[in-house]
Amino acid sequence: MKVLGSAVLTMEAFVMGFAIVFASKNHSGTPLVVGGVIALLLFLTIGLLKSRFGWIIGSILQVALVGYGLVATTLYFLGSLFAGLWVAAIVVGRKGEAARAVFLSQEKPK
């Protein structure tokens, strides 16, 4: 679960960096700073994915990424796409952890 979530957040941070460059042509000041803060928080949240708090912060950042579509309209689509990947990372990650727990709980032949 952590690996998938980390991958999604890393790619989102890069996309956010590119969105800031794109937005700098039409905007200045506050929108660019907000985008930089979102990108930084995406990177920092990767380290927090060990706990439930990290996953909550990551989910909030999904909303922020889609909301940045007000500045860079492409992020409406990309943010929605990444939000779907985030949900998939949670669902598939939980299934993978459950399968791993079953595998590890089985007796090993001697």
Number of helices: 4
Shape: elongated
Rounded mean pLDDT is 89
How many E strands?
0
The N- and C-terminal alpha carbons lie at a distance of 31 Å
Oligomer: single chain
Number of domains: 1
> Biggest sheet, open or closed, and with what strands and sense?
none
Query: Which stretches are poorly predicted, pLDDT < 50 over at least 5 residues?
Result: none
Q: Indicate the structural class.
A: mainly alpha
Topology as H/E string? HHHH
- What portion of the residues fall into strands of 2 or more residues? under 5%
For the CA atoms, what is the radius of gyration?
17 Å
- As a percent range, the share of helical residues equals over 70%
Question: How would you describe the overall organization of this protein?
Answer:
The chain is mostly helical and 110 residues long. It has one domain (2-105). The protein is 79% helix and 0% strand. The protein contains four helices and no strands. The longest helix has 32 residues, at 74-105. It is elongated. The protein starts with a helix and ends in a 5-residue tail after the last helix. The mean pLDDT is 89.
